[in-house]
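Issue 218. Parser rejects a valid record. Input:
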Amino acid sequence: MSGPRPGRTHDITAARHDHIVEHLKAAGLGALADLGFLGLDKDCNNQVVVTGYKATRARKLTTGQKTANRIIAAGRAPVEHGFRAPVEHGFAHLKTWRILTKLRTSPDRATNLLRALLVLTNLELDR
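Output the parser choked on:
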């Protein structure tokens, strides 16, 4: 989890600022991302961030592209026991923490609090 950014910061801008692609390559990892990250990883020979296909008014998606989008979406947020897990479920669960609705503190403190809540949520999900 990165530090705080203004709410208007787009996901791909934050990913570029934090050098996500370089960190993934250094760790030998990859990532499945939504269409908001289209164009993040432009290295066709050693791509680590995989996104789906985006339709335009002039170009509709083929059946194969639609299937690929469904597979990528399923891999991004796998469903376990009827719940999106673990990341999607974790974020949904965090929304139930009332302290986040009444939080009046600096963004740095909010980030630390959110990190702690994610740890607690993960501990709860592992039970």
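Fixed in the parser; the record now loads. Strands lie at 31-32, 49-50, 79-80, 83-84.
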